[in-house]
Amino acid sequence: MCLGVPMKIVSKDGDNIVAEVDGVQKEASVMLLGEEVAIGDYVIVHAGFAISRLDEEYATETLRLMREIYAPEDMA
Amino acid sequence: MRFQDEFRDRTLVQNMATNIRRMAERLTAPVNFMEVCGTHTMSIYQYGIRTLLPEKVRLVSGPGCPVCVTPIGYIDKALACAADPHNIVATFGDMLRVPGSHSSMMEQRAGGADIRIVYSPLDAVSLARNNPERRVVFLGVGFETTAPTIAASILEAARMGLKNYCVLAAHKTMPIPMEILSSDPELNIGGYLCPAHVSTVIGATPYSAIADKHRIPCVVTGFEPADVMQGIEMLLAQILRRESKVEIQYSRAVSWEGNLKAQAILKQLFVPCDAAWRGLGVLPGSGLAIRDEYAQFDAERVLTLNVPDATENPACLCGEVLKGKLTPFNCPLFATVCTPESPVGACMVSSEGTCAAAYKYGR
Fold first, then answer.
1. For chain B (length 363 residues), average pLDDT per consecutive 10?
2. What is the ipTM of this complex?
């Protein structure tokens, strides 16, 4: 029910966006988002609404920490 | 796909599992971590997360599926709406096969009732606009993730001046049932993997009562396997440090304050109310009722819905499964009488239900 899909914004007209994941495009509304989003941004789309913008910096940082802490050479 | 594939890296996940096993060696007793989000439940089964964990780290599923915690009486009301040929009932697909006392939306639709599956609540508003001679009743079920989208649909209907759109609202809010379960000695919850998408809206701060008062570590965790593993690792680290605080693993989507605009729209449209949860009973202040100012969009007030008291199948153990006290495999109906094709309880119906996840991936 709370399923949300990370999608990339490919076009935007006012509060209406078209977002894409794996080649599938869907229309969604950004009226519930408090921050500005632009074409190329990633958002989580739930029930036809973008509910959150995905922060690339945090995503990269999370991955860096995961890879750093769990680097295979440390696991020997 | 960015933000997805990297978090499904098999080697990364296996390395994390090794680290978790090492950490668990330092535990003095087994720990129970509860997830309270249907998408976590699915992810944990789908990626076989339990098989990667040491015996001392147990994962328990809680009341994280909104369809599953919706009481049968609500389904009976929805069926009463659908029985009136003047009404079009619009719903998310998950609700279609949930059994009421005597029937389901699916059965009623086969019998001629006008029941439409929509992807977005705004599609239900379009239905109302395109069918001015009919009334559209939207089944408003869901946690804080979904409730703002329904609120937005009411605002849109109001903006368009529609008088034939209403919502049968049964929204529920998340932190309250977690608090109730926190003090259950039988469950003995050692940590929460807090819901990800609910938290995009409400933020991470509301969990601090659980961490402070009940001394239970809380980590807002994403859905990909590496996210879930890191969430578990962060909970373990807190336990080993004898800490209980709220942390955000899913920082790429969740902040401390959450989505303030969605919160404002929620507050504008809804007011907290007592709500009945399947398996947990009536929890004070755990639901969202439509405000008086928007009464014309409230199906409970627009329609006369007198339905008799609901009856549940006494053999169905969904209630205990939702509290995390039993697993689907403890239920005599599981995979025998109760299957996804012919579900007895809601946990088998919803694609995010614990029984549906166990049936699909767990056997």
1. 81 93 96 93 92 95 90 94 97 90 92 96 97 98 96 97 97 94 92 96 97 97 95 97 97 96 97 92 95 97 89 84 88 91 85 88 74
2. 0.88
Question: In angstroms, rounded to a whole number, what is the distance separating the alpha carbons of residues B111 and B327?
Answer: 35
How close does chain A come to B60, measured CA to CA in Å?
19
- Whether A2 has a pLDDT exceeding 70, the answer reads no
Tracing tokens 């992807």 back to the chain, one arrives at B119
Q: Which of B118-157 are b and which e, b meaning 16 or more Cβ less than 10 Å from the residue's Cβ?
A: bebbbbbbbbbbeeeeebbbbbbbbbbbbbbbbbbbbbbb
Q: With an 8 Å Cβ cutoff, are B262 and A32 in contact?
A: yes
Tokens 């009945």 belong to residue? B276
Contact present, B31 and B58 (Cβ < 8 Å): yes
Q: Which residue has the tokens 């409230």?
A: B298
Q: What is the pTM of this model?
A: 0.92
* Minimal C-alpha gap between B82 and chain A (Å): 22
Question: Is A52 within 8 Å of B121 when comparing Cβ atoms?
Answer: no
Dihedrals phi, psi of A17, to nearest 5 degrees: -125, 160
Q: Which chain B residues have a beta carbon less than 8 Å from that of A23?
A: none
CA B45, B48, B50, B51 dihedral sign is positive
